[in-house]
Amino acid sequence: MNFISEALESQSENTRTKKDQQSLETKFQLYTDKTEEGCQILFNQLETLDKCSFNASLPLVMIVHGWSVDGILEDWIWKMAAALKSQDKQINVIIADWLTFAHQHYPIAVQNTRHIGQEIADFLEWLEESIQFSRSNVHLIGYSLGAHVSGFAGSYISGTTKIGRITGLDPAGPLFEGMSPTDRLSPDDANFVDAIHTFTKQHMGLSVGIKQPVAHFDFYPNGGTFQPGCHIMHVYNHIAQYGITGITQTVKCAHERSVHLFIDSLLHNDKQSTAYWCNDINTFDKGMCLSCRKNRCNTLGYNIREERLPKSRRLFLKTRARMPFKVYHYQFKIHFINEIQGKQIEPTFSISLTGTKEDAKNLPITVLEGINGNKTYSFLITLDTDIGELIMIKFKWEGTAVWENIWDTVQTIIPWRKGTRRPGLIVKTIRVKAGETQQKIEELANRYKEELKFCTAIFLHNC
């Protein structure tokens, strides 16, 4: 006899308490492959668990939507449910429908998040008490306001044992930014909490998504402020795809990107996105944070490495504009020596990479700060494809007129003697680090200006 059958038999022999008799405003729909409406599980009605084929021996993933403008469950909810089942069919997937409370003016919906959090906590306690379903097997995935609903559910559930995991997908910012941990999603709300921040761009002091860390691991794709492919210039593409509602799609594009990054992690097991611990996006953009030592990197999405930390850890990564979102991160550290005294050089050059699997050609790099003296400069380069092990780097210097002007200037000052090497720009060393594989390569260049003027190839394995 299974847990549900035993509970049904026990329930018929006992009188229900007042708490047992109450109903919840939240609708709990068990997702099935057959319909987009799901099978509704009614609180304190064990027969509905049996009718919907809820399997008490399997983990539970509950999807919690956010604020609703039109009072309808959004398409991404069913896409995520289907993706969860495709990833691992040995789970229960429940959609927590709180549209009645979410389809309100935003400040009212915010007030309602605590009430819905309490209802989800009550529902999970009921599963625990009636069919011995462990809360540690529960994973709440909350989007926008739903992220904070999930946090309240985790904090309101009775007892000392916590919910297994909460994932916040771009947790809502307005009326939550800067609040204490008890008034928003926080690392204390589950055994493990992760969050993906995709739309923290501020306007008049507010941002759609919360900017501050709220989890054990907080991911900031592309810096978290905005996402590629979501600029207003893409509104025409969205209108072509969605019709007039494409305008709305453009507005919520970056906010909802968190959802699709998570779905992507479910659908593409072979293309899991790696993110790296870093202080800020400016440092990350220089490629200076691609270390995986001492758990400094982690996988974004469903397959994250779960690790409780004493302090929130902010991780950064770059992504593509569409699924699959994964890119490959490389740091290039180039040591330049500028021999032309008092002359700042601002060259632009491209790099081509040859790998064991594929090649990547003409990747532009610009030294934003200009090259002075004897210094190492760091760059971040991302590739859409996996080129394999790096075996050759090729430089191509752009704008040769810049170099010629430099030589004209120098030659008016210095009388050249035949056979004497002219002062110029030297590339002393090149260091490359691949974030995804942690492969490191260092080569000594010592190539003079005459050789760098057009194209230089650095062979890494005596090819």
UniProtKB/TrEMBL annotation:
The keyword Aminoacyl-tRNA synthetase does not apply. Ca(2+) binds at R184, D189. It catalyses: a 1,2-diacyl-sn-glycero-3-phosphocholine + H2O = a 2-acyl-sn-glycero-3-phosphocholine + a fatty acid + H(+); 1,2-di-(9Z-octadecenoyl)-sn-glycerol + H2O = 2-(9Z-octadecenoyl)-glycerol + (9Z)-octadecenoate + H(+); a 1-acyl-sn-glycero-3-phosphocholine + H2O = sn-glycerol 3-phosphocholine + a fatty acid + H(+); 1,2,3-tributanoylglycerol + H2O = dibutanoylglycerol + butanoate + H(+). GO terms for biological process: cholesterol homeostasis; cholesterol metabolic process; cholesterol transport; fatty acid biosynthetic process; high-density lipoprotein particle remodeling; low-density lipoprotein particle remodeling; triglyceride catabolic process; triglyceride homeostasis. One of its GO terms (molecular function) is phosphatidylcholine lysophospholipase activity. Its EC number is 3.1.1.3, 3.1.1.32, 3.1.1.5. It is found in: Secreted. Keywords: Calcium, Glycoprotein, HDL, Heparin-binding, Hydrolase, Lipid degradation, Lipid metabolism, Metal-binding, Secreted, Signal. The keyword Ligase does not apply. It comes from the Eukaryota. Pfam families: Lipase, PLAT. Its main location: secreted. SMART domains: LH2. PROSITE patterns: PLAT (PS50095). Residues 328-463 form the PLAT domain. Catalyzes the hydrolysis of triglycerides and phospholipids present in circulating plasma lipoproteins, including chylomicrons, intermediate density lipoproteins (IDL), low density lipoproteins (LDL) of large size and high density lipoproteins (HDL), releasing free fatty acids (FFA) and smaller lipoprotein particles. Also exhibits lysophospholipase activity. Can hydrolyze both neutral lipid and phospholipid substrates but shows a greater binding affinity for neutral lipid substrates than phospholipid substrates. Homodimer. This is Hepatic triacylglycerol lipase. It comes from Anas platyrhynchos platyrhynchos (Northern mallard). The gene is LIPC.
